[in-house]
Design brief:
The complex is a heterodimer of chains A (323) and B (260). Chain A has 323 residues and is mostly helical. Chain A has a single domain, classed as Orthogonal Bundle (ABC transporter involved in vitamin B12 uptake, BtuC). In chain A, 74% of the residues lie in helices and 1% in strands. With 260 residues, chain B is α/β, with parallel strands linked by helices. Chain B is 32% helix and 30% strand. Chain B has helices spanning 40-47, 70-74, 92-97, 112-124, 140-153, 170-186, 198-204, 222-225, 228-235; strands at residues 2-11, 14-24, 29-33, 55-60, 63-64, 77-80, 158-162, 190-194, 207-212, 215-221, 237-244, 247-255. The chains are: A mainly alpha (323), B alpha/beta (260). The A-B interface holds A 1-2, 5-8, 76, 200-201, 204, 207-208, 210-212, 214-215, 217-223, 260, 264-266, 323 and B 48-50, 69-71, 73-75, 77-79, 81, 85, 87-90, 93-95, 98-99, 101-102, 104, 106-107, 109-112, 115, 131-132, 136, 154.
Chain lengths: 323, 260
């Protein structure tokens, strides 16, 4: 039996928050230009390039992890990640088209295009999967997977046709924070803040949904409404994240699972911890992405998998004894 | 009081309940019986608000079930489904604690009172020793008792139980039905039980609703309902209900011989 009456993981949250704050400061000093503590605060490289990038990576990491936790509970499926509904592939097609049309030259041109196509994809998928005002989750998942394949095929097609643009498209589909600016932070931050707030608000309902939607309903959850609100807010978060930094995989799948292995299944513990753990993980991966092969940049999406997979496998292995 | 008025419900191609009207009085303990597939579970799910009738109306305390919010309904009706879902990692304690959800405000933790109620309900159902167990570490019967504990923790005036004792050994069947009779008598809880054992129904449920082919075959006192004739019609079984020491019992069950 849990010893404390509170489900709120105060100690874990404080530890994770402290680690995140320390990492944000520490990572700020690293890079092509190394800073000392004092010079950092006066450097325009720090204020205009590095700081927004760090803040953005933390925001996106937090958002993806929280969305992953929410999706896994709503769909009652441990394999779901924030991209399962096809939003990322839809956005990628938009970005690829934008790159073809040369919209990279315009500020936010690719991002805006990606946002629009990502959201359009989701609307189409929801239309297919909804029966009356109910959402059939299995159909939703299958449609999402199907659309993802379709969109990937379109992207491959575009890349073969225009091999000169292949590099930028590939880089986009693997995700990068290289172009982060305060503008992007200002666009993403409010969406992420509101979205995470909504998921936190419904954290207990997520637990009940995990026990089955019929059980949830008979214990007082307005299942269809809660699902709709959660899917809408998480979808918007993911859409904005993908539009600003491309498709960064693995974070949304693995961070909630790692937390679950450590903290148990209660979403009231997992969701708040996912904010800091997800932010921290993404920040560390992005710092590696920009420092490992300096001055070259690696796509951060490859590093999340490279760093995350062994950690996850280790945790799974360690937990094997419990079964 | 719960009332179904001219309720019809069907799944895609098959009508399960046809023009059913039945009343469950407050404080009653009802056995809902009938052959497999006759609509017992559908009836409970309609009352629980999990299904909406195609025609007719289901009312709880004089108000249509549709007009209640999920929370309001969860404070009035506790529903335990037939096959508990087990594909999650919550401990038995956490599972029972979920029964307190209808009384909790958002972003608020469980109070000491919630914890005490959970402990009491788990002790009542003899599951307190299982409080740390995960669903995959429990037997079917243990799981069923945990689900019953959760329903008790909901502290509702009405309990809807879909085969609550079908996975239990005979000792635990008695234990659970004794417990249900106690809460029925002492707390005036209305209890609807889907149950298959004729003698258990006779012993514990004074009232009977007997379903047959999508309609009500009988509603009223249980001993008067479980007649040789009714049992033969509904189950196609030959049985002899008799009275031993003033208590009705069904003896000598035999499969009905095929009539030439």
């Amino acid at each position: 039996m849990p010893k404390s009456h509170s489900s709120f993981p105060t100690v874990w949250l404080l530890l994770l928050a402290a680690a995140l704050a320390a990492a944000m400061l520490g990572c700020s000093m690293l890079g092509v230009v190394h800073f000392g503590w004092d010079e950092m605060w006066q450097s325009s490289i720090f204020w205009n390039l590095r700081a927004p990038r760090i803040v953005l990576s933390v925001l996106v990491g937090a958002a993806l992890s929280v969305c992953g936790a929410a999706y896994q509970s709503v769909f009652r499926n441990p394999l779901t990640d924030p991209y399962v509904l096809g939003i990322s592939s839809g956005a990628s097609v938009g970005a690829a088209v934008a790159i073809l049309l040369g919209l990279e030259a315009y500020m936010l041109g690719v991002g805006a295009c990606a946002l629009v196509t990502g959201l359009l994809t989701i609307v189409v998928i929801y239309r297919i999967a909804s029966i009356g005002n109910r959402m059939h989750t299995t159909t939703l998942l299958l449609t999402g997977v199907c659309i993802t394949f379709l969109m990937s095929a379109i992207i491959s097609f575009i890349m073969v046709l225009r091999q000169d643009k292949m590099d930028s498209i590939i880089f986009w589909t693997m995700g990068s924070f290289a172009s982060a600016s305060w503008t992007e932070v200002a666009i993403v931050a409010p969406v992420v803040a509101v979205g995470i707030g909504i998921v936190l608000y419904y954290a207990r309902d997520l637990n009940l949904l995990l026990a089955g939607s019929e059980t949830a309903r008979s214990l007082g959850v307005e299942v269809e409404r809660v699902k709709r609100v959660l899917l809408l807010s998480t979808t918007l978060m993911v859409a904005f994240c993908v539009a600003t930094c491309g498709v960064i995989g693995f974070v949304g799948l693995v961070v909630p699972h790692c937390l679950r292995l450590v903290l148990g299944p209660d979403n009231r513990r997992i969701v708040p911890c996912a904010i800091f753990a997800g932010g921290l993980f993404m920040l560390l991966c992005d710092t590696l992405a920009r420092t490992l092969l300096m001055p070259a940049e690696l796509p951060v999406g490859s590093l999340t998998a490279l760093a995350g997979a062994p950690l996850f496998i280790y945790l799974l292995y360690k937990n094997k004894k419990r079964y | 009081m719960i009332e179904l008025k001219n309720v019809t419900y069907g799944y895609t191609d098959k009508e399960v309940l046809h023009n059913v009207s039945v009343r469950f009085d407050t404080g009653g303990m009802y056995a809902i019986m009938g052959a497999n597939g006759c609509g017992k579970t559908t009836l409970l799910r309609l009352v629980a608000g999990l299904l909406s009738p195609h025609s007719g109306e289901v009312t709880v305390e004089g108000k249509s079930v549709k007009q209640y919010s999920a929370i309001q309904l969860a404070r009035r009706l506790a529903y335990v489904r037939q096959y508990p879902q087990t594909d999650f990692e919550f401990s038995a304690f956490e599972t029972v604690l979920m029964g307190r959800n209808p009384y909790q405000r958002r972003l608020q933790n469980e109070s000491q009172r919630d914890w005490d109620i959970v402990e009491q309900c788990m002790k009542q159902t003899n599951t307190w020793h299982l409080r740390l167990a995960k669903p995959n570490q429990m037997s079917g019967g243990e799981l069923q008792r945990v689900m019953l504990a959760r329903a008790l923790a909901q502290q509702t005036p009405v309990m809807l139980l879909d085969e609550p004792v079908s996975n239990l050994d005979i000792a635990h069947q008695f234990e659970i039905l004794e417990l249900l009779r106690t809460v029925n008598r002492e707390e005036q809880k209305t209890i609807l039980i889907v149950i298959h054992d004729l003698n258990m129904a006779l012993r514990y449920c004074p009232q009977l609703v007997l379903l047959h082919q999508g309609g009500i075959r009988y509603q009223g006192a249980t001993p008067q309902g479980l007649t040789t004739d009714n049992i033969r019609t509904v189950f196609n079984i030959q049985a002899n209900p008799i009275t031993i020491d003033g208590e009705a019992t069904v003896l000598r069950l035999e499969p009905q011989k095929a009539t030439p």
